[in-house]
Automatic annotation (TrEMBL):
<comment type="function">
    <text>May be involved in the formation or repair of [Fe-S] clusters present in iron-sulfur proteins.</text>
</comment>
<dbReference type="InterPro" id="IPR017941">
    <property type="entry name" value="Rieske_2Fe-2S"/>
</dbReference>
<keyword id="KW-0408">Iron</keyword>
<dbReference type="GO" id="GO:0004497">
    <property type="term" value="F:monooxygenase activity"/>
</dbReference>
<keyword id="KW-0001">2Fe-2S</keyword>
<dbReference type="GO" id="GO:0005506">
    <property type="term" value="F:iron ion binding"/>
</dbReference>
<feature type="domain" description="Rieske">
    <location>
        <begin position="189"/>
        <end position="294"/>
    </location>
</feature>
<dbReference type="InterPro" id="IPR001075">
    <property type="entry name" value="NIF_FeS_clus_asmbl_NifU_C"/>
</dbReference>
<keyword id="KW-0411">Iron-sulfur</keyword>
<dbReference type="GO" id="GO:0016705">
    <property type="term" value="F:oxidoreductase activity, acting on paired donors, with incorporation or reduction of molecular oxygen"/>
</dbReference>
<dbReference type="Pfam" id="PF01106">
    <property type="entry name" value="NifU"/>
</dbReference>
<keyword id="KW-0479">Metal-binding</keyword>
<dbReference type="GO" id="GO:0016226">
    <property type="term" value="P:iron-sulfur cluster assembly"/>
</dbReference>
<dbReference type="InterPro" id="IPR036922">
    <property type="entry name" value="Rieske_2Fe-2S_sf"/>
</dbReference>
<protein>
    <submittedName>
        <fullName>NifU family protein</fullName>
    </submittedName>
</protein>
<dbReference type="InterPro" id="IPR034904">
    <property type="entry name" value="FSCA_dom_sf"/>
</dbReference>
<dbReference type="GO" id="GO:0051537">
    <property type="term" value="F:2 iron, 2 sulfur cluster binding"/>
</dbReference>
Length: 306
């Protein structure tokens, strides 16, 4: 099944829930009947899946091919029919994202999978280094969490030991604190296919989940930030990339206060005599199901702006 179909069916549950909610407008009886209809259909294909898995149970190669399909695997999990335990599913999910992790110079290992107070608990450890630390570290962690929660929805806790950040850049932990709340990811991935329209070294503004973000493209890499200057706090609308003497990467210049930020290294301000808190707020960006997507959390309050 191609990526466009995967992206469509990944959101099928949300569309079904929207239709159920809409049925409430016709009254409680109509809503109850709609829920019963969905339940009957779900039980019907669940029974069919059960029979299929019984028929192929003796063919381990075929079973692996079936469970390797993300859509089929998700339906098997819904009905408790997946033949592999959580550890196996997590390892398989990480194998699928390892090429992406490797492109950032990193890897991840499963330290343990055990029982937690509210479900399965997983401990992971990152290794290697990220070519664009630490904003890349945030993207990598969310990528791994997304893969694990898709493959093993019973997982309630994911503890990650991230790689040590490079000296001279913002701590990855300080960035992850904007993404995590109560030990869980508070971010939601939002498809932003318009990002693909950016040309190399181009900067553009986009609306994502009701907020304006600034995106920059360098070759095959995209970097996304909230639309707020880390120095003056104003919008970055009209900002452009500039190549500074002695700089390895182009920098983004605020069109208002003219502060300069390293977009590759978490938006750190590269001007002299500035505070380490004067940086842009990066947002993880990832190609999911063939569509560029951005992880967004709720807009931080003024008191929480660095």
């Amino acid at each position: 099944m191609g990526a466009p179909d995967d992206a469509h069916w990944r959101t099928a549950g949300d569309r079904i829930q929207t239709l159920l909610d809409a049925s409430s407008a016709a009254g409680p009886v109509a809503h109850e009947r709609a829920e019963l209809l969905v339940g009957e259909v779900t039980d019907l294909y669940g029974a069919a899946l059960h029979r299929i898995m019984r028929l192929v149970a003796t063919d381990s190669v075929l079973v692996d091919r079936i469970t390797a399909d993300d859509l089929v695997a998700s339906l098997l999990l819904v009905h408790g029919l997946h033949p592999h335990d959580a550890r196996r599913r997590i390892e398989d999910a990480l194998d699928k994202v390892r090429p992406y992790l490797g492109s950032h110079g990193g890897d991840v290992a499963v330290l343990s999978v055990g029982e937690g107070p509210d479900g399965a608990a997983v401990r992971l450890q990152f290794s290697g280094s990220c070519k664009s630390c630490p904003s890349s570290a945030v993207t990598l962690e969310l990528t791994v969490e997304d893969a694990i929660r898709t493959a093993a929805p019973e997982v309630s806790t994911i503890e990650v030991v991230a790689a040590e950040p490079k000296a001279g850049v913002i701590s990855a932990d300080s960035l992850l604190s904007h993404i995590h709340r109560n030990g869980h990811s508070a971010a939601t991935w939002h498809p932003v296919p318009e990002l693909a329209t950016l040309q190399n070294a181009e900067v553009g503004g986009f609306r994502v989940a009701g907020s304006t973000v600034l995106a920059c493209r360098l070759g095959d890499d995209w970097f996304v930030y909230r639309d707020r200057c880390g120095s003056c706090g104003d919008s970055l609308a009209g900002a452009a990339l500039h190549r500074r003497v002695g700089s390895t990467h182009p920098v983004l210049r605020c069109p208002r206060c003219h502060a300069h930020f390293d977009i590759v290294h978490a938006g750190a301000c590269v001007d002299e005599n500035v505070s380490a808190t004067n940086h842009l707020q990066p947002l993880p960006v990832l190609n999911r199901d063939g569509v560029l997507s951005v992880a967004m959390e709720a807009e931080p309050t003024a008191a929480g702006v660095p």
